[in-house]
Amino acid sequence: MILNFRFNSIFSLSNKNLSFFLITCLVTLLGFGAIHTSFGHAFVLSSSPSQSESIPKSPQQVNVFFSESVDLRFSHLKVLDSNGKQVDKGDVHHLQNDESSLTVSVPLLKDGTYTVSTNVLSQIDGHVTDNAFVFAIGEAVVVPTNVSTTIYRKQLQDFLPF
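Given the sequence above, the corresponding structure tokens read:
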């Protein structure tokens, strides 16, 4: 039995269509991976104290954990009192070398409501995200609000002409 195998049959129209289909599938799969990365801004996952938490006494530090690594050189974490005055010690750093976290020390804080404000640059996609939340110490009452939406609206109002 003699096999008649011609090399040009590999490049026939049906094989070209199959090759095109496989290449298209590969590019599509790679594209979905790129989409995941492009929408991966550094959002707040958790914090200590947590959003809207009421704690009995002053924390020694405020920790914020993000969905991805943040660039410390271009990121900010601030703790503000109810008058908007910054009360943290300004020593922002990554917690235990975890690049997806920021921490800042605070002095002994009085009873009251405090705002934690973050402005971070993602190391993954280079986008900047803002967030803010409140916590309380002592008998202060915290009303849960979405402060980050308010900040975003304010930035849009400053940017847009109408």
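The first helix runs from residue 13 to 38. Try to locate this feature in the token string yourself.
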